[in-house]
Amino acid sequence: MINYTNNLREHNLKATPQRLAITDILYTKGHISVEVLYEMMQKKFYSISLATIYKNINLMIENSFIQEVKIPNAKSVYELTKEEHSHLVCQKCNEVLDIKIDLDSIVTKTSDAYHFNIKNSNLILSGLCQNCQ
Amino acid sequence: MINYTNNLREHNLKATPQRLAITDILYTKGHISVEVLYEMMQKKFYSISLATIYKNINLMIENSFIQEVKIPNAKSVYELTKEEHSHLVCQKCNEVLDIKIDLDSIVTKTSDAYHFNIKNSNLILSGLCQNCQ
DNA sequence: TATTAAAAGAAAATAATTATCCTTTAAGGG
DNA sequence: CCCTTAAAGGATAATTATTTTCTTTTAATA
């Protein structure tokens, strides 16, 4: 298990064992729901409180260490903050993949057409993965 | 106020006064949260139950009459089902606009690259509208 | 090693959503 | 038109999700 102490500290987060484990799970799994994260954490910390999960998720979001991904017709998952990217979701097995799609020209055109100062783009493509088709 | 009886019936929904009002509000406002919908409905129906709002929203979604729009860092809003489109959201005033963006080539390329059978695309661009900049 | 602000855990509180149960009503058939 | 009935509405309870509070423990650093 890699040591993520510095990653946390760079985001002004104390490196507690619980946070190191959350970080490790996020690195390993890529995307995870509150529910599943709690289940996995319980295996490592016998008496961890669900409040600890929520408090950490919220603080980590505030400190831009992680981000929520809101998926249509499914529960939110959380991921480590990385460079902007889109998501590909399987509607059957719920797998979530990060994909790199260039939206620059769409953003530019839309900004101009609607006089919006666009700061974030969020694209989720949903369907069936190869296995589930 | 237009009569939406047939619109509802086409989706196998009984045309109750409450549903006609919800439909009218959706047509007029375009996008609305549960909370605001409830407040607006209370003005027309003195003793409407919040359960009625939720039950109708859920049934209307099941029957594809409306759809949920999950917005990053904000509450979900609901809209009447229309042809596929994207959304432009102001992070300050929370205005939500429907925009038409051609994602066909992105969908095709991604389908091929990842062997996914993509069924839905969901793009939300967030930033500041002209007024809020 | 001692100090202290922050984090963890337990439990209570709050918020959001759904279910239950009884009353009312939309819809369609005679 | 009335009658019948399945479905919908309203009130409220129950459930689920999330946040808060409070006390104990601990990471960070001096």
Describe this structure as you would to a colleague.
2 copies of one chain form a homodimer. In chain A, 23% of the residues are buried. Chain A has helices spanning 5-10, 17-29, 34-44, 50-62, 104-114; strands spanning 66-69, 77-80, 86-90, 96-99, 117-128. Chain A has 2 domains: 5-80, Orthogonal Bundle (Arc Repressor Mutant, subunit A); 86-127, Dna Ligase, domain 1, CATH 3.30.1490. The first copy, chain A, is of the alpha+beta class and 133 residues long. The termini of chain A are far apart. Chain A is globular and about 55 Å long. Helices cover 41% and strands 22% of the residues of chain A. The A-B interface holds A 68, 70-73, 88, 90-91, 97, 99, 101, 103, 106-107, 110-111, 114-130, 133 and B 68, 70-73, 88, 90-91, 97, 99, 101, 103, 106-107, 110-111, 114-130, 133. β5 of chain A pairs antiparallel with β5 of chain B, so a sheet runs across the interface. Chain A binds a DNA duplex (30 and 30 nucleotides) through residues 14-16, 18-19, 34, 45, 47-52, 54-56, 58-59.
Features:
homodimer, 133 residues, alpha+beta, Arc Repressor Mutant, subunit A, Dna Ligase, domain 1, 2 domains, 3-stranded mixed beta sheet, 5 helices, 41% helix, DNA-binding
Biggest interface, which chains? A-B, 34 and 34 residues
Instruction: Give the uncertain stretches of chain A in residue-range form.
Output: none
> What is the first-to-last residue Cα distance of chain A?
35 Å
Radius of gyration of chain A: 17 Å
Number of domains of chain A: 2
Largest β sheet strand count, sense and barrel closure of chain A: 3 strands, mixed
CATH A-level architecture of the largest domain in chain A: Orthogonal Bundle
Shape of chain A: globular
Q: Multimeric state of these chains? A: homodimer
What strand order characterises the main sheet of chain A?
Answer: 4-3-5
CATH superfamily descriptor of the largest domain in chain A: Winged helix-like DNA-binding domain superfamily/Winged helix DNA-binding domain
Counting DSSP E segments of at least 2 residues, the number of strands of chain A comes to 5
Which class do the helix and strand fractions of chain A yield? alpha+beta
**Mean of residue pLDDT of chain A?**
97
- CATH topology (fold) name of the largest domain in chain A: Arc Repressor Mutant, subunit A
Strand content of chain A: 15-25%
The helix fraction of chain A, in percent, is 40-55%
CATH class of the largest domain in chain A: Mainly Alpha
Following the backbone from N to C, one meets helices and strands of chain A in this order, namely HHHHEEEEHE
If helices are DSSP runs of H or I spanning 4 or more residues, what is the number of helices of chain A? 5
